[in-house]
Amino acid sequence: MFPDFELCCSAFEKYGLSLDKQIYNKLVIYSDFLIEYNKNVNLTAITDPADILYKHFIDSIIMLKYVDIPSNACLIDVGTGAGFPSIPLKIYRPDIELTLLDSLNKRITFLKLLCEKLDIRSAFIHGRAEDISKMTEYREKFDVSCARAVANMSLLSELCIPFVKVGGTFVSMKGPNEDISLGFNAIKILGGNVSRETSYSLENEERRIIQVKKISHTPTKYPRNSSQIKKKLL
Ligand code: SAM
Q1: Which residues contact 112 (CB under 8 A, 6 or more apart)?
Q2: 124 CA to centre of ligand 1 in angstroms
Q3: What is the pTM (predicted TM-score) of this model?
Q4: Which of 87, 124, 141, 210 counts the most CB atoms within 10 A of its CB?
Q5: Ligand 1 atom closest to residue 83's alpha carbon, by position in its atom list
Q6: Does residue 223 have its Cβ closer than 6 Å to ligand 1?
């Protein structure tokens, strides 16, 4: 069973976040549906409700402590999987205009059903980021692109930065074990500039958020197609 309201309030408070009953009720629906659906379709290895609270929900929402997401921002979650980090963000900040992108259709099917249950409005895209960001309707159209646990910083930058408007932000949520500086060349080529790197601890595990400001347009030759990207990182 998902932890009760009081317990969740204390968990959120521990990380400087507040929680109300309306948000809590949606998190319960999310957790229950995720666990149920995950029995037949592989969405997440984290299936204990208390772990879902910390490792999925708080780990996603904590972004709002460190990243300034403007009101009504258009946000795309690249490689969203079962909806992390962006569905918890949308539950917490309903003003966000959400787009969910994943290359696996079974995950998009889950997300559509989940959003219906949560009464959340979102756009859904099934496809590979490197193909979708070449389409004029999505290229440099977002205030924020974000991703958690999708790829190394260089590859991820090529997948995410082309979606962001000049002046917008790419937010990467990372663990402790990657040399982020290996992505700096890619970030520069793609029109970005690392503006802030924040480290914090979540249940004794180190986490990092890297914010990249988009300072110039991404050259039209990027992103390259997936086989070129795999052959040589920027
Ligand atoms: N972001 C979620 C999370 O933190 O729980 C899911 C992480 S999961 C490890 C990586 C996800 O990225 C998968 O759902 C996969 O299908 C998706 N993915 C990987 N490469 C992609 C690409 N090039 N374009 C779109 N989605 C991609």
Answers
A1: 124
A2: 14
A3: 0.97
A4: 87
A5: 2
A6: no
